[in-house]
Structure formats: structure tokens, C-alpha cells
């Protein structure tokens, strides 16, 4: 798996100023999808049924990475930039928001990809195939936005070029956060999701009082802290220090994904209870 990821990095590194590997790995994305499923309203579940085609959010969560093997120009040359954002001045993260994105060609980063997907799902003018594409990408991108190194530094490709060891095995910082820390728990995605699920109304309200740029700003601050500590020999102490952060990011990603989908598909979903705060994720129809 690691060799495959590094090969992909080498292939596209010359094409993009920054490239981040698969976020969270398959298990991480599926955990977020599974957590989200527990927080969807009945109306949202009904609206998602024809779009998911008998799949679950957990199942479609990895689609946007799996499709990178497709030989079309979009997947080979254009889709990579959908997965990340590099902002040197964190105070300007919100200046990258563009609620009006309605074309794939306009997407320059993960924020654009999220708003393109929202707008496509809310538009009466888009086809069901376009909506299915948008849903699958949106599920994935919400996950990506909660992986700290998808808002990391461009110069090291979101931690991909920073060499570390994980219990003596050679790897890189990005791979450590997207796969190694989660896999070290020795849990299936459904077991992991069960362990981090919450019905605490205060926690849920706090998570939903946000918008996509906030999620990426949180990720940026986490990655910046990890960068500054520059820990390269990873073992039990590192896991003890950072696994609580990983669990919180996965929990936040799942609850916020549900909140976003409820906002898109259920007009009666209550802001900060079932849906994100209304003002910041209203798509242009």
C-alpha cells in the first residue's frame, strides 16, 4: 500500500505544486461515513437512497480515491487538486470561499470541490449522474478536510516528503496520519465508528457550529503544531499524544458530514442540532 502511494506521488509530483496522499486511508474515510449515517434525518436518508444506489456512505467514501486509477484526463490530471488546500497565511483561509462554484473546471482546491458538490446536489438543473458524482466526492472531501495534512504545507506535499519511522518501519508523515495511526488500533471501520460515536448534544452543537473553511483551518493548525514539534521516530509516546486528536477529527468529520447532508436534503433539519449553521453553507441555485 505504501509503495503504491509513493509511486503515485512520484508520478504526479511534477504536475502539481503540492500533492497529498490518500487521506485517512480506506478505514478513516469509512469511519467518517459510518459515523455520519447515525446522524442523518429520515428525510435525508430518503433523499440519498436513489443517489447511493444501494451503497452506504461508508462504501462510497473511498470512491474519489479509487477513481484515480481511471485513465480519463479528469482523474489523471485534474482531480488531485480537489483533495487539498495550501494556505501559507491561515488568517486568509476564509477568503478562499466561493459559494458560486458550479463547474468542475472552476475547482482549484478542496473548498471549491466542496461547494461545487453542494451546488450540484441542490440544483434542479443537474442530472442524477452529476448528483451521484457530487455526493460521492462530497463524502470524501469532508473526510479529507478533517485530515490535518490536507491543509498542510505545499513545499513538503502535505507531509509526504517528510521521512519518519513508525515502530522502526520507514514511512512518511502524511502516511502516518492517514493510515498508520488508525490501523494501529486494530479495529474495523465499524468498530472504530462505534467506539467514537456520541449523542452528546453540546458536542454535536459545537461541531455543527462551523463551515468547511473552519474545518480546514482546524486541520491547518493541527498540522502546523505537528510540523513544529518535528517528531520523526514514532512509537507508543506519539500514539498516546496524538490518537485523541485523530479520534476527534474522525468524529467531527462524521457529524459534520451528516450536518451538511441534512442541510442540503432536509429543509426542516434544525441548525446546530441536526444541520450545520444555516448562513454559511447555502448554495447558489
TrEMBL record:
Record carries keyword Disulfide bond: yes
UniProt keyword Metal-binding, yes or no: yes
Pfam families per the UniProt record, alphabetical: S1-P1_nuclease
GO biological process: DNA catabolic process
Gene3D superfamilies tied to this protein: P1 Nuclease
Protein keywords: Disulfide bond, Endonuclease, Glycoprotein, Hydrolase, Metal-binding, Nuclease, Signal
Coiled coil: none
Descriptive protein name: S1/P1 Nuclease
